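Closing statement on the S-adenosylmethionine sub-project.
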Amino acid sequence: MTIYEHPLYYEVAFSFFDVKKQIDAFEAIISKFSKVKVRRFLDVACGPSLQLREIARRGYEAVGLDSAPQMLRYLSGKAKEEGLRIETVKADMCNFRLDKKTDFAFIMMGSLVVESNEKFMNHLDSVAYSLKRGGLYFIQNKAVDWTRIAGQSWTMEREGITVKTTFKIHWKDIINQTYTEEVLLEVNDNGQKARFESKEDLKFVFPEEFKALIKLNGKFDFLGWWEGTVSTWYLDRPLEKAKTPNNTNMLLLRRK
Ligand SMILES: C[S@@+](CC[C@H](N)C(=O)[O-])C[C@H]1O[C@@H](n2cnc3c(N)ncnc32)[C@H](O)[C@@H]1O
């Protein structure tokens, strides 16, 4: 997973959203759906987490969990620069237990991807253990449209650093529902050029299968899924009614 060993370049490449709008939306969703008062947030697969930085700025407790130590060091460094308090936990999102339970958990940018259904169940168990009963689990960009898994490319620039990201997905094994995801970052850092690549085999969890696994796991209520953009989600537009269900979406679970 080499792209995740370069948090600054990852951040430049993937900061195409409005973080204030996202956290405003979290607060609105909490007031509508949460059964607990929210003080402590958990970002699963947090990366450089612009979200936790905004959350900490607003006075909440912030916890970031990631398997890449480089990401966690970078996030802690950014928090220190700004005088913010953000706790970090190095762990696998399919195998963790936070004894100090959180009130709201979230996972952004399609990061909820696993190699098998068993891992997905382990992930649900891990989040369930670490979240108070009545607390929400917010999942951004669940891949729901398998007919249009292809690829995309975009370029971002910040402070003399340009990063071109190329994202490719292709089916690997139809019967076992696996696909290969490849991400390439082509960096020009003030004249210094570099390339970083990641390649991973993952399992496509189909929408109805996803809901069935949540039911089987038994620890969460499925509250719904909705259309959105990178920064905003529309609670009046459930995915079931969308003309073309999009992978830019949001779904909500609540801990039983
Ligand atoms: C697509 S990035 C998302 C980062 C950030 N949440 C965002 O929205 O920009 C995925 C993150 O998941 C982390 N990651 C990948 N596999 C993981 C795992 N099994 N457990 C925990 N973190 C993982 C990577 O290190 C990376 O920081």
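The mean pLDDT is 96. With this model delivered, the sub-project is considered complete and its resources will be redirected to Aim 3.
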